[in-house]
Amino acid sequence: MRNIALIDVNNFYVSCERIFNPKLEGKPVIVLSNNDGCAVARSNEAKALGVKMGQPWFQFKDLAQKHRIIAYSSNYTLYDDMSKRVMNILSTFSPNQEVYSIDECFLDLTGFGNLLESGQNMRETIKKFLGLPVCVGIGATKTLSKLANYIAKKYPKLDGVCNLNDMTPFQQDIWFKRIKVGEIWGVGRRLAPKLNQYGIETVYDLKQASSTTMRNKFSVVMEKIIRELNGISCIDLEEVTPPKKEIVCSRSFGIKITSLTDLEEAVSLYISRASEKLRRQHSYTGSISVFINTSRFSKPKDNYFNVIRIPLPTQSASTIVLTKAAIWGLRKIYRHGYKYQKAGVILSNLVDTEIRQTDLFGLSPISNRYQLMKVVDNINDRMGKGSIWLASQGIKQSWSMRRENVSQNYTTDWDELLCIQ
């Protein structure tokens, strides 16, 4: 039997904030999304007060004031760095690791000895070196390990580790009868109501369902979920993350903007970030799409959305080349007189660097810029993001997303290191 572990950091964004501000322990804390829009992370205390995931900030401002809920703006630089530290530590526990998200990863522990002891060792190590609380779920498949992790979080008596493989099928079913079907990985809130219509309310109900029948009613994905619930592995561990087929970078602005200059700065910044991701996966892009739009709540006469796709004459990964193409496209779709809320770029037709098609003579100046971009990337990695950037990205960026209560970059900026009084 395989032993797949899912390790998940509890309330990750909130936990990262608490590491560097111990006064937050035991208090209701939330972290807000871009532009301080809605709750994307909640402490257990905030959950107990009724704050829902994804709930807009303006809806519970009064509740926050009444119960002294502490709200932080998202600090993605801090969270990304802490995530890398967590994953580096977990990689020492197994040679087979799949980083699933910023706060979750799968480990293959097949052949290991005492799995409960291994799980507790992971928790203690991460708590000791990083101060972050984690839970560990272990099962015969990835779907079962996700459920085990859910059980470990919900039932404190398990001390943060749940191993379904140590249970008999009867004991597993007792747990599964307690868990709503919407908690299953791959089901969620969208499919749960449809399953309820067929009398499937719990994990146990779905486990007992016919995989062939449910495939015909839903899809092959539902069939795989049922098989995984029954201990048949259908979803492999991805130890190497496959390259993305498309790269999107977009943001809502902190304020509505009207000028073409501000839009050009924003699009230049988004192209820079997208091209960094492009080079990180060793790819080139063959086309760029640029889109802009006003608020969806605007009146019809004030509403505007447009997108343009720009095929490139030669596939490229150069920020300079891609920025020129994107700004050219932006100027084609820009319309004066609208208040723009959002812009974004999409890199598509991606190919690996090894199979990139050059021009007729293979001497395009575009190809010579890859080394330049690597130098820029290396400097930004060593000296900090944004050490070198294109002037077209602007200096002040008054349109940048609103973050009124963002914490310091404690781990990535010398000027923002934690000072102990």
TrEMBL record:
One of its GO terms (biological process) is DNA repair. InterPro entries: DNA/RNA_pol_sf, DNA_pol_Y-fam_little_finger, DNA_polymerase-Y, DUF4113, Rev_trsase/Diguanyl_cyclase, UmuC. One of its GO terms (molecular function) is damaged DNA binding. The keyword Cell inner membrane does not apply. It comes from the Bacteria. Gene3D superfamilies: 3.30.70.270, 3.40.1170.60, 5' to 3' exonuclease, C-terminal subdomain. GO terms for cellular component: cytosol. Keywords: DNA damage, DNA repair, SOS mutagenesis, SOS response. Residues 4-188 form the UmuC domain. Belongs to the DNA polymerase type-Y family. This is DNA polymerase V subunit UmuC. It comes from Nitrosomonas supralitoralis.
